[in-house]
Amino acid sequence: MFTPMQTLRTPEDRFANIPEFPYAPRYCEVPDDDGGTLRVAWVQDGPDDGDPVLMLHGEPSWSFLYRKMIPILAEAGYRVVCPDLVGFGRSDKPTRREDHTYARHVEWMRSCVFDVLDLQNVTLVGQDWGGLIGLRLAAEHPKRFSRIVVANTGLPTGDIPMPEIWWKFREAIQNTPTLDIGRFVESGCRRPMSDAVRAAYDAPFPDDTYCVAPRAMPGLIPTTPDDPAAPANRSAWAKLCESPTPMLVAFSDGDPITGGMAPIFQSQMRGAQGIDHPVIRDAGHFLQEDAGEELAGHIVEFLRS
């Protein structure tokens, strides 16, 4: 018997006291690949006619992660667009783990930024899952993208073993009885986090029934060569290696999960050649939280070069 996708929507009052994040949410509907629709949220700033900078967050954060960067890029004249991935932030949250697949997350974001927003001449900024999804979009729709920024991310194909610390993270987030999202984000940072900021990361998840996406995402990363997502990622990697699209590799110095990818991007990507790639010092996995202003400055410099 067919059962349509079940979703939860975080009550708006959960977002009433978010610090340093004055952006009004915007919403659209995208097909859920199951006969229905999902509401996807985004925030934006900067001139409507500016070249778009698409900033994609990862797991288990939301667009709030980019709050230190949005005003800097907007002030520089760019149209900054920060969506919430399905299952995160203000976007709808499918409640069954099997509703989340890598292919669906790519398609949900593609539908939002291309079918609805019709973004062209895009600069992608992708961290964590924001890179896993965004790099697929950049490889599969190259005419839409003018530049790429990779920051503490990758494009796993299952051909190279994941680091031991990632397996421990996956085990923890999948099996902890109650997820403390704010603490998970804090554990991926190097610098102190206030109670208010930690609460802002918790805001999209009133209780554990809303946490299906954070629990599901680690299991969607290809860890074996025969993973369902591996062929598409392998194809995307090959296309990106040959792509002339300029690529800035802006990784932190303190990310044990993705740190090893920085030299691989720098050496294998054609678009990364001849570019001065920064290292963000004293920053962890969530470098936007630890050093967002510094990262934004490097991106503006890259865009103007």
Percent of residues in helices comes to 25-40%
The CATH class name reads Alpha Beta
Q: What letter string, H or E per element, gives the SSE order?
A: EEEEHEEHEHEHHHHHEEHEH
Indicate the CATH topology. Rossmann fold
CATH architecture annotation name: 3-Layer(aba) Sandwich
What do the pLDDT scores average to?
97
Distance between the termini: 56 Å
Structural class: alpha/beta
Q: Radius of gyration over alpha carbons?
A: 18 Å
Helix count, per DSSP?
Answer: 10
Strand content: 15-25%
Oligomer state equals single chain
| The CATH homology group name | Alpha/Beta hydrolase fold, catalytic domain
Total separate domains: 1
Low-confidence stretches: none
The largest sheet has its strands arranged as 2-3-5-4-7-8-9
GO molecular function: epoxide hydrolase activity
Organism: Mycobacterium shimoidei
Protein name: Haloalkane dehalogenase [Amycolatopsis mediterranei S699]
InterPro entries: AB_hydrolase_1, AB_hydrolase_fold, Epox_hydrolase-like, Haloalkane_dehalogenase
